[in-house]
Description:
- InterPro entries: TSCPD_dom.
- It comes from Methylopila musalis.
- Belongs to the ribonucleoside diphosphate reductase class-2 family.
- Its EC number is 1.17.4.1.
- Helices cover 30% and strands 21% of the residues.
- With 151 residues, it is an alpha+beta fold.
- The protein has one domain (5-146).
- The strands form two sheets. Strands 3-4-5 form a three-stranded antiparallel sheet. It has a two-stranded antiparallel ribbon with strand order 1-2.
- A hairpin with a 5-residue loop joins strand 1 and strand 2 (19-21).
- The protein is globular, with a radius of gyration of 16 Å.
- The N and C termini lie far apart (52 Å).
Amino acid sequence: MTDRPNDDVRRISSDDGSNWSHTHHREALSARRRSETLSFWHLGTRYHATVGFYDDGRPGEVFLDAAKAGTEREAIARDAAVTVSLALQFGAPLDTIRRAMTREGSGAAAGAMGVLLDMIAAGPPPADIPPPGTRGALAETLERLTDGGAP
């Protein structure tokens, strides 16, 4: 055993059998990047999310806020978004993060971040930036998964 347990971690296996290297390199997103903003309901709380994408279409950052500022749910959502964003930028696969989220017995995501990650994984992002005032792929996926979204 070593005094520094992380010295032994070099490669990490994901659930799908692929490996990704543990790295200390954070992949920055371009200053002008495609993003999509959407809102959804989860357990009686309205959430607002923005997903930023790398040039190749991979998600690289997420922002998640609860509708009620200053609440514990908002703090949890924002902290989860920072954590997921850092994991994505350090090379963790979206599907590995998504499958690590707490699930209900039915397999549905138990928390708002899990719902958002499921929405991102449910469909590819649009090939082009949607024009202002139009709906993007994530918003359409949300509507399809929630039958309109409102409780």
